[in-house]
Amino acid sequence: MTTDPNPQKPFTPKFKREDANDMIPIGLVRGMFALALASLGLAAYASVTDRERAAIPAPAPVVQTWTISLVGNDAQAVTVLDANGEMLADMAHGGFVTVIQNGLMTMRRRHGIDPALPLQIVQFENGRLAAIDPLTDYRVELTQFGRDNQAAFERLLNIQ
Q1: What is this structure's pTM?
Q2: How many domains are contained in the chain?
Q3: What CA–CA distance (Å, rounded) separates 86 from 67?
């Protein structure tokens, strides 16, 4: 008869250590739940009282608008077409342009709209650049993602 070479008991996870101390202090657990409930309460209060939104950019006059289509080819590749259907760019690694295209595709799929339909890029007088979908409420303030990401769209549209 052979004997078991590993005579230890199999591991069973426990909620408490053998010295009966909690792994996470109960005060920390209560604090986490209190923070979650306070956040939920503040969000509900703002929604019920129709509180004005706070983090919206200041309104400014529109300087110029471009109509483009973003067609995703795979997880990274994107083709950018102008309003006439002519290719502005065909990027194997679109970077930030692909991020915007993926967000637009998700929003349009949610609303049952063709993701290849045109999108508007709007330049405002104060220098902001925004991607606005006229078919859904999708709006991305491109300026808020940093100068390099905004520059990706400026290069596509030849904005000086």
Answers
A1: 0.66
A2: 2
A3: 12
